[in-house]
């Protein structure tokens, strides 16, 4: 499997409640062969709820929640506008992602950062604890 893979396009369809967004996004992922293992793995940011932390605007990889160690796990990311910027860690090759596309990212091989100019209407979803579903 590739280090960065577009799974498909997802629309928020006017949903505003984070629980409903998580529910619908989880169902969409399931239909595309990805299971979310924990509700705690969802990070849903609505417009205006972005961190002012400059670190997210630098190239980085996510920690695993245990001593912030980098480990091999998959991230799922989505944004309606101004997608998260992605690049391969070794070659620094940049990946272009269209708004609305759901992207599967291998954390140990790919760095990411928040766009330098975040759009005021930007919704963002990140899921960190996923597994692949075996076809039946």
Describe the fold and architecture.
By secondary structure, this protein is mostly beta strands. The protein contains 1 helix and 10 strands. The chain has one helix spanning 18-31, and strands at 4-9, 34-36, 42-45, 74-79, 85-88, 94-95, 101-106, 110-113, 124-127, 130-132. It has a 5-stranded antiparallel sheet with strand order 1-7-4-9-3, covered by helices on one side. Strands 6-5-8 form a 3-stranded antiparallel sheet, with no helix packed on it. The longest helix has 14 residues, at 18-31. It is globular, with a radius of gyration of 14 Å. The two termini are 20 Å apart. 17% of the residues are buried.
Residue fraction in strands:
25-35%
Task: Classify the helix fraction into a percent range.
Answer: 10-25%
Number of helices: 1
Task: Label the structural class.
Answer: mainly beta
Instruction: Write down how many β-strands occur, each being a DSSP E stretch of 2 or more residues.
Output: 10
Largest sheet, spatial ordering of strands: 1-7-4-9-3
**What value does the average pLDDT take?**
86
> Spans with pLDDT under 50 lasting ≥5 residues?
none
Rg on CA atoms, Å? 14 Å
Spatial gap, N to C terminus: 20 Å
> Major sheet: size, sense and barrel closure?
5 strands, antiparallel
The gross shape turns out to be globular
| Helix-strand topology string | EHEEEEEEEEE
């Amino acid at each position: 499997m590739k280090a960065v893979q577009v799974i498909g396009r997802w629309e928020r369809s006017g949903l505003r409640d984070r629980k409903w967004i998580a529910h619908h996004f989880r169902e969409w992922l399931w239909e595309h062969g990805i299971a979310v293992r924990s509700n705690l793995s969802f990070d849903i940011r609505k417009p205006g709820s972005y961190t002012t932390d400059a670190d997210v605007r630098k190239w980085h990889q996510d920690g695993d929640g245990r001593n912030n160690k980098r480990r091999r796990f998959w991230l799922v990311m989505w944004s309606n506008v101004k997608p998260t910027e992605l690049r391969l860690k070794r070659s620094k090759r940049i990946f272009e992602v269209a708004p609305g596309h759901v992207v599967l990212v291998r954390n140990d091989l790919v760095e990411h950062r928040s766009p330098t100019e975040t759009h005021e209407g930007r919704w963002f979803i990140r899921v960190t604890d996923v597994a692949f579903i075996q076809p039946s």
